[in-house]
């Protein structure tokens, strides 16, 4: 249902009550604006902190990637060293086998 025309009648004292009500609403809006401004400042601060955290995380990711690469290279080096030590043990066994027996004590 649509209303084409709305007539209001103000009785004695209603204008004062309305003015007081509007003043209260304005006060509530001022409080709301202050809270909103405070929240916006906190949000800006949080965004700055998140930016700092992101850059720190990116740096940690780069370092971790480099370390992972270095660990891979170290694993390869250890595998090569193990193979070399195996060959060295075999060579040493062959040398010891070819040596003459020890002289009897005495």
Detail the topology: elements first, then pairings.
Blueprint: H1 14-98
Descriptive notes:
It is a single chain. This protein is mostly helical and 106 residues long. The model has no long low-confidence stretch (mean pLDDT 90). Helices cover 80% and strands 0% of the residues. The chain is rod-shaped, with a radius of gyration of 43 Å.
Measure the end-to-end span: 129 Å
Strand percentage: under 5%
Average of per-residue pLDDT values: 90
Oligomer: single chain
Task: Provide keyphrases for this structure.
1 helix, single chain, 106 residues, 80% helix, rod-shaped, mainly alpha
Short description:
The chain has 106 residues and is mainly α. It has one helix at 14-98.
């Amino acid at each position: 249902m649509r209303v084409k025309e709305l007539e209001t009648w103000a009785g004695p004292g209603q204008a004062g009550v309305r003015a007081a009500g509007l003043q209260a609403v304005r006060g509530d809006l001022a409080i709301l604006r202050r809270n909103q401004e405070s929240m916006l400042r906190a949000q800006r601060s949080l965004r700055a902190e998140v930016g700092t955290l992101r850059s720190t995380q990116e740096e940690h990711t780069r370092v971790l990637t480099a370390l992972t690469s270095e660990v891979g290279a170290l694993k390869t080096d250890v595998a090569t060293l193990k193979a070399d030590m195996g060959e060295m043990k075999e060579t040493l066994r062959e040398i010891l086998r070819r040596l003459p027996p020890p002289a009897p004590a005495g």
